[in-house]
Specification:
Helix content is 82%, strand content 0%. By secondary structure, the chain is mostly helical. The mean pLDDT is 95.
Length: 120
């Protein structure tokens, strides 16, 4: 059942996802280490925290167990994507960083859209 609380959490989660992707993209495109650091740690990290918090709240409100395969995949892949971004902070982003981030982002979207479950 969708309530106003669920809609607010969905809005917050969407904003978090936008911050995460925008901050990560800015970090991968930035030219200086300080710009990369700021985009990664202030914007992308905050966005990931908001997106994860919103996801946990939605799962709780919807009585969906956090052990569903699509949720575990989303958490793992989003953490991996953030690690790729963080690893590019000191030396700058290489083509490998960009490709890895894009592939992980597609994996996250696939898990959220197709929602695979254990034993299916």
């Amino acid at each position: 059942m969708e309530t106003p609380a669920v809609h607010l959490v969905l809005l917050a989660k969407f904003a978090g996802v936008l911050l995460f992707v925008a901050g990560s993209g800015a970090s991968l495109l930035a030219r200086t280490r300080e710009e990369r650091r700021r985009a990664t740690h202030r914007i992308a990290s905050t966005g990931l925290f908001i997106a994860w918090s919103g996801g946990f709240a939605l799962a709780s409100l919807s009585a969906i167990p956090l052990t569903e395969l699509w949720i575990v995949l989303g958490l793992g892949l989003s953490l991996s994507a953030h690690i790729v971004t963080v690893s590019a902070v000191e030396r700058g982003a290489t083509r490998g960083h960009v490709v890895a981030f894009a592939a992980l982002l597609l994996g996250i979207l696939g898990a959220m859209i197709f929602r695979p479950v254990f034993g299916a």
